[in-house]
Amino acid sequence: MDTPLDGRADVVIVGGGVMGTSIAFHLAEAGVRRVVLAERGELGSGSTCKAAGGVRAQFSDEVNIRLGARSLEAFARFGERPGQEIDLHRVGYLFLLSRPEDVAAFERSVALQNELGVPSRMISAAEARRLSPTIETDGLLAAAFSPDDGHCTPESVVLGYATGARRHGATIRTHCEVLGIETDGGEIRAVETDQGRIETSAVVCAAGAWSAAVGRMAGVDLPVEPLRRQIVFTEPIPDLPRPVPMTIDFTTSFYFHGEGEGLMLGMSDPEERPGFRLDRSDAWLPRLTEAIGSRAPRLLDVGLTGGWAGLYEVTPDHNALIGEDAAVSRFLYATGFSGHGFLQGPAVGEVVRDLYLGREPFADVSPFGAARFAAAARDGDGLRPELNRV
Asked: Quick one: DSSP state of residue 50?
């Protein structure tokens, strides 16, 4: 049972996905005494439970590389700290490249990743097929691969962080909806929930696709839009060569990785429009089928067993919002990860802990401040696009 809300907290975290539970764990572990996390549903019931589970450090942005690499280290030790089996499979990420401009961009990204200690490398199309024999190499020019990347189980990560947070004294309240945030003179006074009012001087918004509404409660602009993404699962494939790396056809965004005895398949839909739709639709399947036929045609004969729809939390430059608002003191945020929030959860928990405590984080996340969008609108500069996104 969750302990009752006592009406006061040092910090209230809004959102109980991987980001919120990671932040709660890191704050409580650091000795912050009254940490309260409010989740309006079940823990991980938003975007986290619908994540594909990929974990990687192969990015084009230096901050994302650092966050991804730090999180990979944490995922590798997760059984010890906080103490939970997460079914981590370090099978690697394989990006398949069929456009010259993508090859050039990934060459630059791999060079930067290597400078930061990530063991990624550019490989030939032939080597890519050896790593992922399901693919066809027609039209492929090259590929990028990092053996340290892979995938794990998002729900287990949330459970581990939530259990660890509680062990260190945090209060986690599910089915607790935040209705408003009281401010006075640029300072936070309280959070109003459907289970009562919590006096506090600090709030962390980790509400994912719902963050814009939480920001508005405090008068903070968080430019995050929800975008539906869908995945499907195949029937068991007895003769599937294993291990199966997370394989991504970068041109189409079609990807797959091993899931049980079969595969998980996904792909973006360029016709999808922002919104909170979570119903499954078949409209994207012809495009998926075309991509499969081009890049992994043997999968066309494999049956599908189901799937689901979830929400990306997208910002205008497809990069995260991490920081503290300049006008509302102690309103911190970690949101807008545009598809790579789950994999950066451990590192971002550390970063937000340090921002709250006034310590310098291991990575400079100041370029991810939400104010960059206002600056870009004013000066035409300041956006920080991430190129290596799926």
From this structure: G
Tokens for 218?
């405090």
Could you read off the pLDDT of 84-105 as tens digits, one per residue? Answer: 999 999 999 999 999 999 999 9
SS3 label, residue 300: helix
Query: 145 vs 4, 110, 129, 261, CA distance in Å?
Result: 48, 9, 12, 23
Model confidence at 3, in pLDDT bands (50, 70, 90)?
Answer: low
Q: DSSP secondary-structure letter at 329?
A: B
Residues 6+ apart with CB under 8 A from 103: 97, 122, 141, 142
Q: Do 170 and 40 meet the contact criterion of CB atoms below 8 Å apart? A: no
By CB atoms closer than 10 A (0-12, 13-18, 19+), residue 376 is middle
Cβ contacts of residue 328 below 8 Å, gap of 6+? 183, 186, 187, 188, 218, 219, 220
Provide the H-helix boundaries in 30-99: 62-76
For 303, the token pair is: 């049956």
Q: Which residues contact 251 (CB under 8 A, 6 or more apart)?
A: 96, 97, 98, 99, 102
Looking at residue 276, its amino acid is F
Going by pLDDT thresholds of 50, 70 and 90, the confidence category of residue 297 is very high
For the chain, give the number of residues: 390
The answer to whether the pTM exceeds 0.85 is yes
Residue 6 has a pLDDT of 66
Decide if pLDDT at 196 tops 70.
Answer: yes
